[in-house]
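Throughout our pipeline, every protein is held as a single compact record rather than as scattered files. Nothing more is needed to write down the fold, since each code stands for a local backbone conformation. For reference, a complete record is included directly beneath this paragraph.
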Amino acid sequence: MTAAVAAGAAFAAGPAAASIGSAEAGRNPDSQIDAGTQRGDLVSAVQLRKLSPVQVVAELTEAGFDPTAAQSGVVLYRLVYRTVDERGRPTTASGLLVLPRDRSQQPLTTVFYGHGTLVFRGDAPSVTHDSWETAAPITYASAGFAAVAPDYLGLGLGPGQHPWMDVPSEVTASVDLLRAVRSFTGRIGRRLGPDVLTTGFSQGASVSMATAHALQDGAVPGFRLTAVAPVSGAYDFRRSEIPALLDENGKLNEQWSVAYLAVLFTSWNRLHGLYSSASEVFQDPYDRTLPGLLDGEHPGDQVLPGLPATVDKLLTDRGRAMLEHPTGRFAAALRVADATCTDWTPRVPIRLYATHADEQAAFENTLACQAAFGDRGLRVPIVNVGDTDHVDSNVRATADIVRWFQHRSGTR
């Protein structure tokens, strides 16, 4: 899409960790890779860059992020590791690890960061040249944490196409990266403590929530969840996000709504077989052009010009009806996507970051998530980052979250 999408400007609507292994018949993400190898085994590790404290401040400032929490220079690594795909089959994925260069803090507390929606595999954290996409992990590492950011399946150096908003595979890719990180840091003489704090923006908000659930349930022995702080997620996709995307007179930006609905149908048809022909949901010529355009190989500035200006010009009557009244496989997939805040009870502090003015992820998503936790007797605060847009909500939230994480972990 545009540079904004390459910078993570997309909503998140993630399913929950409880759906792992049960979302669809035949999916077995708890399986081993093959004889002699395990999920989380390290395939390769490459040091990407070293930044001095001065360079960290300069890079964060250039990306528009607050550098005042920076205490150390950082080292960036790309890890490739073994995991399973959305069908439970052996595959590999890549991810970013950022460590503080200051070795005085041992062991390190881990911050997990999930990035927002990307349409181009080259924009993923471990391969991008865009300082915005790596700014949050660098912020956390420069503040004294080990920052871990998965690329997700089918992005970065991962083979195949990205199964967008498929939380079972988002979670397996995430916990397997944590396993690989622990192995790698031991090899280079760095030590990780047991504590993990999770955060993420947009799509990554739900990824961070679901990964937190998995960690609380013991998905990675030796790691324990200690706090959760997702940013601007679409946690209530069926009842909050989809109606907002379809409302052409609503608060959301219609160009982004067109983009996300195109990604939703294209990706979920690959995952769930929602229709036999794209012409059932997309109007001409988009039924012929979008499947190829949204293959992960086209940068955002090539994708957006290939989209119509309005939702009405994108969707057929049947496509709109499917969104307004989901049934069958689509309804089942949405139930998984909407379980992020409804099927677990966090036993750690949690904050929800959002902006009332979000033009991509309707604020009602965050209210629905808060209410779902409230139904379990939890008082989960919403931190309103102010009157700003979707992208900037991540910038503002990161500045607050890093300090909250420091307070929670005692790293100040």
Observations:
- The first helix runs from residue 3 to 6.
- The chain has two domains: 13-233+344-409, 237-336.
- The longest strand covers residues 74-84.
